[in-house]
């Protein structure tokens, strides 16, 4: 979703946008990448946004042998990805764009057990795109993808630490801090903004060891 703000023991690097670039998924098997009639390619070649690596970088929606998308609503910034993954063992589902169980041709991904489908959402914000599973829409298997404008993040010095401020996005946020720009591993910590989910500031006084860095990421909460 965003290039994170970086705080080292000596200096700041402050981006104007909270924007990540996708990187390669290393899981075996195949994935479907694209829009309607997306094509299957080996997952090692799929340009996807950090699958299984750093979930703040994109939105993951799971399906299984039930009749729901989890979560039912994904909230992303324009240009971010949504990845649908089938973690069940038997039922066939789809992610098919359109309202009221009627496909509109924007995207369609078949979700057999173990399969996954990824799409980048470049639609101009604000935008809500409904979708459904073709075999199961009558059972209520529907969802939405909400596209927001960019979260614009700034950093500044505060007594004993750092202060983050931001604008844009959905109005509900979550803050991540990591010792790695990939936001992978046990150093990743999740925080609520000052004043709750709707807050637009966050102060952190965690010490930064000389030679190391803290990276910060603000994402839409859903």
Question: Main attributes?
Answer:
222 residues, Immunoglobulin-like, 2 domains, five-stranded antiparallel β-sheet, five-stranded mixed β-sheet
Biggest sheet: strands, sense, closure? 5 strands, antiparallel
CATH class of the largest domain: Mainly Beta
Pattern of helices and strands: EEEEEEEEEEEEEEEEEEEE
In which order are the strands of the major sheet placed?
Answer: 2-1-20-17-18
Secondary-structure class? mainly beta
Beta fraction: 35-45%
When the domains are counted, the total is 2
Distance between the termini: 14 Å
Radius of gyration (Å): 18 Å
Poorly predicted runs are 5-28, 43-56
CATH topology of the largest domain: Immunoglobulin-like
Q: Give the CATH architecture of the largest domain.
A: Sandwich
| Helical fraction | under 10%
CATH superfamily of the largest domain: Cupredoxins -  blue copper proteins
Dominant shape: elongated
Strands, count: 20
Q: Taking all residues together, what is the mean pLDDT?
A: 78
Helix count, per DSSP?
0
């Amino acid at each position: 979703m965003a290039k994170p703000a970086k705080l080292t023991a000596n200096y700041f690097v402050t981006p104007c946008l909270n924007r990540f670039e996708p990187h390669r998924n290393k899981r075996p098997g195949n994935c479907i990448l694209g829009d309607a009639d997306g094509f299957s390619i080996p997952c090692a070649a799929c340009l996807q946004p950090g699958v299984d690596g750093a979930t703040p970088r994109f939105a993951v929606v799971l399906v299984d042998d039930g009749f729901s998308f989890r979560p039912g609503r994904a909230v992303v910034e324009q240009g971010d990805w949504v990845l649908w993954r089938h973690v069940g063992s038997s039922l066939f589902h789809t992610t098919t764009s359109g309202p009221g169980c009627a496909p509109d041709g924007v995207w369609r991904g078949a979700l057999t057990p173990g399969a996954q489908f990824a799409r980048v959402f470049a639609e101009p914000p604000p935008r809500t795109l409904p979708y459904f599973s073709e075999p199961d829409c009558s059972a209520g298997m529907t969802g939405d993808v909400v596209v927001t404008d960019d979260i614009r993040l700034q950093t500044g010095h505060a007594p004993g630490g750092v202060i983050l401020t931001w604008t844009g996005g959905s109005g509900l946020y979550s803050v991540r801090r990591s010792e790695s720009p990939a936001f992978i591993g046990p150093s990743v910590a999740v925080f609520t903004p000052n004043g709750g989910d709707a807050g637009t500031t966050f102060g952190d006084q965690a010490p930064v060891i000389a030679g190391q860095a803290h990276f910060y990421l603000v994402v839409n909460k859903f």
